[in-house]
């Protein structure tokens, strides 16, 4: 409990335009007077000697009315204030949300400095204070200020720290969300821990991290609608990549036997609670691995990331729900699980007309229907809603997986899995197709679909085929959504796990 009792400023997104304009005018006037008085409103630096988190860690043991004799210089954003006659209180907040109280007294700073504090400081300002570390009469860790300085003058008011921003305001003004909400600060730090954990897991297994082009002359590596743009320098149409797969495989051909990339992908498709047009993706490839090896690796990557964020494999989501990411995860056959759940004859040999009729009975509509698309839609209808534990769904139809090796024992099926956690697809893994002749046939089939209007179909990529023709070793590959991995660990929606999501 701090020593101040300030009534916070009303939420900025609840103020009228006139009220915001009035408050801005008042603060701009303070800025001008501050500068005219010889002080700086935006100094290039202030003489900090420690941080608020470090201060709390070192002096958190102090009890009521303790003194230390230690003088520090700290800076933070002023989020609460109470100005009285001879003693003013302010709470300074660091970027991680930790706080310390500043006490500005007549006895320590003198009348002129105290008057300037009252005149020039506002909630939202970044303020530097220097003084002795003490504990107040209410037991609040404090700095008894001897000198102070504006570090950055805020000319717009902060929202109310006790009232949540609307969901839309949180997304559009993430900087305010980070100031106000502990969950937002936790999420941005959790994401950094996840990425560090992924890289550490790969480094321990001799993987190399690379970067591949985001602007590509031909989109490929997944079935998705691309974003198109134009290069003035080359006078040609280019595409924002939908996946790094075809370039990472070129690296494997070149001898980079264990390779991964964490970077952005772009798909010109819908946005909802699990999809964003721009998203972060991990892809990795291992020479002489297969989809079983990559499933083992993916489980290790996810579990290590959960440990890095939560310290355990039973994670607690934002709504308080617990979810167990521990143990060995289930592996089920797509065809067998779909047939068992639906009671239908769903096999690799099921005719397309039969599947189309059964899909229509349950209200499933598929644009440009094929055997594989219908099987996957029926599986999603009958099986997906009932998955609770983390589950690898194994062995997909060949016609929806043009970059995947044929199953070693089951005709019409490829060695591919999708990992489902929390009801959504988190990752996918392949035994990669490395035969350039079969790959060309698959690309031709995709090109035919594209000519028939399927905007998600891949194009014939001669440069990639040329690379394969130089010999690619047997390889396993995975693709894992970073945003969705955060969703699985935190229980948040995708717009919460992306720091600055795309909004209209």
From TrEMBL:
<keyword id="KW-0963">Cytoplasm</keyword>
<keyword id="KW-0460">Magnesium</keyword>
<keyword id="KW-0067">ATP-binding</keyword>
<dbReference type="Pfam" id="PF01336">
    <property type="entry name" value="tRNA_anti-codon"/>
</dbReference>
<keyword id="KW-0436">Ligase</keyword>
<feature type="binding site">
    <location>
        <position position="418"/>
    </location>
    <ligand>
        <name>Mg(2+) 1</name>
    </ligand>
</feature>
<dbReference type="GO" id="GO:0000287">
    <property type="term" value="F:magnesium ion binding"/>
</dbReference>
<protein>
    <recommendedName>
        <fullName>Lysine--tRNA ligase</fullName>
        <ecNumber>6.1.1.6</ecNumber>
    </recommendedName>
</protein>
<dbReference type="GO" id="GO:0004824">
    <property type="term" value="F:lysine-tRNA ligase activity"/>
</dbReference>
<dbReference type="GO" id="GO:0005829">
    <property type="term" value="C:cytosol"/>
</dbReference>
<dbReference type="InterPro" id="IPR018149">
    <property type="entry name" value="Lys-tRNA-synth_II_C"/>
</dbReference>
<dbReference type="InterPro" id="IPR045864">
    <property type="entry name" value="aa-tRNA-synth_II/BPL/LPL"/>
</dbReference>
<dbReference type="InterPro" id="IPR044136">
    <property type="entry name" value="Lys-tRNA-ligase_II_N"/>
</dbReference>
<comment type="similarity">
    <text>Belongs to the class-II aminoacyl-tRNA synthetase family.</text>
</comment>
<dbReference type="InterPro" id="IPR006195">
    <property type="entry name" value="aa-tRNA-synth_II"/>
</dbReference>
<dbReference type="InterPro" id="IPR002313">
    <property type="entry name" value="Lys-tRNA-ligase_II"/>
</dbReference>
<dbReference type="InterPro" id="IPR004364">
    <property type="entry name" value="Aa-tRNA-synt_II"/>
</dbReference>
<feature type="domain" description="Aminoacyl-transfer RNA synthetases class-II family profile">
    <location>
        <begin position="191"/>
        <end position="501"/>
    </location>
</feature>
<dbReference type="Pfam" id="PF00152">
    <property type="entry name" value="tRNA-synt_2"/>
</dbReference>
<keyword id="KW-0030">Aminoacyl-tRNA synthetase</keyword>
<dbReference type="GO" id="GO:0000049">
    <property type="term" value="F:tRNA binding"/>
</dbReference>
<feature type="binding site">
    <location>
        <position position="425"/>
    </location>
    <ligand>
        <name>Mg(2+) 2</name>
    </ligand>
</feature>
<keyword id="KW-0547">Nucleotide-binding</keyword>
<dbReference type="InterPro" id="IPR012340">
    <property type="entry name" value="NA-bd_OB-fold"/>
</dbReference>
<dbReference type="GO" id="GO:0005524">
    <property type="term" value="F:ATP binding"/>
</dbReference>
<feature type="binding site">
    <location>
        <position position="425"/>
    </location>
    <ligand>
        <name>Mg(2+) 1</name>
    </ligand>
</feature>
<dbReference type="InterPro" id="IPR004365">
    <property type="entry name" value="NA-bd_OB_tRNA"/>
</dbReference>
<comment type="subunit">
    <text>Homodimer.</text>
</comment>
<dbReference type="GO" id="GO:0006430">
    <property type="term" value="P:lysyl-tRNA aminoacylation"/>
</dbReference>
<keyword id="KW-0479">Metal-binding</keyword>
<feature type="region of interest" description="Disordered">
    <location>
        <begin position="1"/>
        <end position="22"/>
    </location>
</feature>
<keyword id="KW-0648">Protein biosynthesis</keyword>
